[in-house]
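quick one, 393 residues, struct below
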Amino acid sequence: MAQPLVTNRKSFLLQIIPVMLCFFVMGFVDLVGTASNYVQKDLSLTDAQANLFPSLVFFWFLIFSVPTGMLMNRIGRKRTVLISQAVTTLSLIFPAFGDSYTVMLLSFSLLGIGNAIMQTSLNPLVTNLTPSDKLASTLTFGQFVKAIASFLAPVIAAWGATTVFPTFGLGWRALFVIYAVVSFLSISLLAATPIEEERPERATNIGQCLKLLGNPFVLLCFIGIMCHVGIDVGTNTVAPKIIMERMGLPLEEASFATGVYFIFRTVGCFLGALLLRYLSPKVFFAASVLLMLAGICILMAGHSLMPLYIGIALIGFGNSNVFSVVFSQALVYSPEDERNEVSGLMIMGLFGGTVFPLAMGFAADAFGQIGSVAVMAVGVVYLMFYTLKIKVK
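---
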């Protein structure tokens, strides 16, 4: 990998701060779990109908990720990130005008499109600022910043739903307006930040990009990303439902379970950013997966509030660094002139956020929320297998 073009600490900070704010905006996609629960309540939807929202968001990763890798080759990574943020801002404006099924479908579709473009382009943009041996740590810190936005989403939504402070009739949808303002600020800062990029020497088409999945390690990483995001979206969507089903609490109280998940995912990202500078990624990843396995087992068996919170916390903590390790493995061990395309393929793996919630919704309608947990367990088992394939220099 070419050395980063940042020449001193001051210029690095001036560039990395706007980039990290972009990671915060990237975290807005996780509001879909919280929002879908409120929409389900407002519109009296079934689990399968409500889970269509997170599935729809992540469906667009399948469509836009690979073309975005090609777009980066043409216009550069920074410009591609700016486009993604503009689409994200637009998606956050629509719910201010209502929460009908059609409006929310449109909003979540645009949110998914914007996030697919952003995740494909923002992670490779970091490689222009960070050496390869620090890439996993830097991406993990970005995931820590992203997790802050994810954690705040259920808090802000609950505040909007219950506060006596004026929210102009928006209620929980005040969350969208607040995040739209932050997204616009992020666009302004990144646009004003100079970042040098190296242009690839060749252009590719969709067929050539998809052909890279013929590389066994790239395919393993792709499926690993699918499992990670499926567990992530699945947990923050199903956690309140488990609490409601087993403890009989209303949504406003049960939504604290989503907050527990994101608190521990945030803490895990922060610790991961530090520990990955010193520990082997393989050892760190193995410990993370074992924590998730323990959390899944607790959710299967737990029938009181504290054990359920512990299980949710363990999954959040364990899943916090999976993306960073898998993504950095895919980039570092791919040829430099294929990294934009590999990035697109890895982000296409976030399509797991469509597959898992749909399967979980049908399983929950048939067997209760234990069916949802069983679907997530499949992803954890695969990640245990992936641990054996992690490469260490």
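The mean pLDDT is 83.
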